[in-house]
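#struct-queue
[09:14] JT: dropping the first one here, sequence first, then the structure tokens:
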Amino acid sequence: MPTNHEIEAAQAANEWLATLPLNVRANTVATEVLQQHWITNSPRQMAETLADCIKQKAWEGIAYMPSVPSKRQVRSYAPLEWLRECIGAEPDELMRVLAGQQLTEEDTEPAAAGLVSLMGESEPETLRDLCEDVQVGESTMVGWLGLIKQCNWGTALEALTNSVKNEPGGNGSNQHTKSNTPHRGGLHSDPTLGANHHPTDRKSRVIRTLQKLKADPEACKAKGTNTEKVSDALSRLVRGLTPSVEAAKREAGIATKKKVNAGLGIRGPAPDVAKRVIRDVGKEAAKEIALAILAQLDQ
């Protein structure tokens, strides 16, 4: 049961939401509904809501409503960052749900075509990777090209064909990443986008890093890895097969090695400290340490 404080905070947040522009309120509600459909595995409702969210560009203004009033703000996201941060899903996961359910083309094609367009505009290299079939264990994971053909999504196939024709970083890239959504009457600084209007969430940053390394064998070598490991890690990450960003970095061989604290506590009774030293470093090394201490005392 929620506490009185939680109930009051929720009421205050909803009152604040009511003061925001209509499009921000619509985006906020639509995003919450889509997230719930994803969590509860409701594919038909998810497909309809996803198509509507993409059509209205729901990522361009969403109310962030923590219990602390001073921290409330309107946030804008890059499209794929919105999926990853607000919905908690990779585009590939959404596409496979759309393709794997016994739904009509009318139910699923608008959402599928929208996903293809977002990928082509935001991460064209990732889209190219997702088009390919991949081997996962003893099974073959059909790529987007195969899924779209199997489902007879004509509009999505046309969007995919046009997207993969474009060179990476062309005019179609990152068209939706900049936004100037008003916040309580003024323009706010978008906290989710960097100086080049790239998404700043951890997963998007790691995906960009792996894509750069994949195309640069020398950079891979400098980090103690290779392009094959990086490519495999990237493929698993964008398909939702890797549970976390840190796991993807470990698979790619670029995880930061944690420093082991080699310190030894020397406070306490001398016999206890001596036992700890002997246990941690061994008898011979402990003797050398003792002699070194005596030598320092004699100086």
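[09:21] JT: and here's the second one, same format:
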Amino acid sequence: MAIRCILYAILLIISSVFGQSSSGWSSQLTPPTIDPQAASLAGNVVALPLNPSSAFFHNPAQLPLLPNALSLGLFAIRFQPRYQSPLGYDQTSRELPIVPSVGYVTNRWAPLHVGIGIFGTLGFNFNYPADPAHGVPNNFYTDLAILSLTPTLAYSLAPNLHIGVELNPSYGRLRFKTPSPIGRIDVDVRGPGVFGTVGLFYTPTAKLSVGIGYKTPGAIWMFGNARVAGAGDNATVNFQLPQSVEWGVAYHFTERLTFVAQARWTELSVFEETQLKFEERTFLNRTAVQDARDCFRLGGGVQYILFPGVTLHVGFSWERWAIAASSLAPTLSDNTDFLFPFGVTIERGRWQVHLMGGLTHTESREVSPEQNPFFAGRYSLDESVFGVEIIRRL
């Protein structure tokens, strides 16, 4: 019965994600987390087991520490990037994407712990309207959604040492529209891909936990149709997924109070190897980003049991921009962000309901014509997020 429920949930999420625009949380190229409960701690949970979805994204070695459970989460993101050009173009992309996640874990085959779920690996959405009076005859539009499955095995090497291995078969879709000197360019490609996730979880003392999660390099091979100034073409995108490693600690000061701290390194410079290619108009072939750098995301959080059945969460994280000024465009911008999420978990019997909200402060970027002759101007972002997650112990 539980397996049937998880299959229905996966089908529902696949249809919802690819039936509408999707966006990762924050302006960045990779999300800090994918489920609302972990998001309340700004994703700083590699050393703090919470639920199956959180474990799949951050550290699959947490599965032996979780009860048999099913988790369903849903984000709503108020995402409003703004672009102002020196020529007078000044528009805001107003988006409200929905980001779902689902996870299931069981110890039916103990000592192996088995899990399956689905989450959005990454995604972003920009849709700036046309403004012919200021030289923009068509809209700027980018919509990328990459969805990943999470078949996972975890094993306890010792009572305080656990490992987890996860294969992530994926599917992605990219839609891209932009005006150009030769006319409107319209691309719609999709296809499969794969990467992997491994994790380690260690509790050297009853109060201290240490976690490490590693995502391997991966790729999404997308292909489909394109139109250039109304004429048809074929297009392919070899989309490179960056490797990342996150490590952190959780310290239980008391039975009610827990502090977490975490760092994540992501090889975002690999996006320089992502290429868009046209079959006939090869002169339009280009890389997604010409100049990007690897980044660290740093953060921490506090979990506090207010009283039995009610737990509060507060988090913080920070990451600098990855895309250099010379590579910014309305179809892909990037800002330094500061995340300030909060949430509450209410537990009754076998059920947990988690509610969260969050604000983002981003630093605007001023790009001069010398740095970027095509898309100079000011890039800014206004964003907030709220979500709900339901967890059922089985």
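[09:30] RK: nice, looked through the second one.
[09:31] RK: The chain has one domain: 2-393.
[09:31] JT: good to know. Residues 1-28 have pLDDT under 50 and may be disordered.
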